Amino acid sequence: MHKVLAAAILAPSAKNRQPWRFVVVADREKRAEMVRVMRAGIADTKAHGVNTGTAIMTARIMEGAPVTIFVFNPDGVHPWLPHPDEQSFMESFDTQSIGAAVQNMLIAAQDLGLGTLWMGDVWSAYRQLEAWLEEPGELVAAVALGFAAEQPPPRPRRPLSEVVRWL
Hints:
With 167 residues, this protein is an alpha+beta fold. The chain has a single domain (2-163), classed as NADH Oxidase. It contains 6 helices and 4 strands; from the N terminus they run H-E-H-H-E-H-E-H-E-H.
């Protein structure tokens, strides 16, 4: 686990802000509590008429993974709160930096023979997870780590001709 987190903090970051904090949930009882919180948050979000997409699958993956790492931007503002343009720009930089840190985690975990899943749909239980985790800042994502139960083939990718425009 330390190697995965050590790789994360080596990621490049805009203006060297290093805008990341990690909360690791590995204890069996805490993991069970985390899944209950996630499921309650999903149910609450659905009750408000919001489509939670694949969030229930995320909760199942969290339940089966021996470790879940939550990734926070300690300087971030909750997405539903208004904030000045300058804050929005800084959060954009921070989110890109956090993305690099998460990718470093995934690569390091794969090198160690671990399976991973980068989960963004923790938003469906955002308020509940944030309250439970008691970490200041903006909850950005989570990463499940464990030994892979399957080896799916690579996901299809669009060809460069569809995603690149040369000037």
